[in-house]
Amino acid sequence: MTTNKSLKFYIYKMTVDSGGAPCVFRGTLSLAICKPAIRSSCTVGNWIFGFGSKKKCEKLIYIAEIRSKI
Fold it and tell me: Which of 2, 9, 15, 49 has the most C-beta neighbours closer than 10 Å?
C-alpha cells in the first residue's frame, strides 16, 4: 500500500450563493473567483468538501477530487 503524503482535504463553506462560484459545468467544478487559499495550495489528488452555510442547514453539498489545475 502506498501513501500520498501530500493528500489534503479542504472544507469549502458556502456563505453566499450568487451563482458565480463555485461553478459546475459539464462535470467540472471551478473555484475561479473564490477561495484563493484553496486554489493556491491544493494539488492533484486532494479533495474539497463543500458545505452550505447555516442558512443552508450546513449540509454537505458536494465532494470533489482535484484532477487538474488550469
Answer: 49
Say what the pLDDT of residue 1 is: 46
Mean pLDDT of 47-61: 83
CA distances to 7, 9, 23, 54, 67 from 49, rounded to whole Å, are 14, 7, 14, 16, 15
Left if phi > 0, otherwise alpha if psi is -120 to 50, otherwise beta: which for 54?
alpha
Task: Assign 16 to helix, strand or coil.
Answer: coil
pLDDT tens digit string along 30-46?
A: 887 778 888 888 899 99
Cell of 68: 487538474
Per the structure block, which three cell numbers stand in for 38?
Answer: 484553496
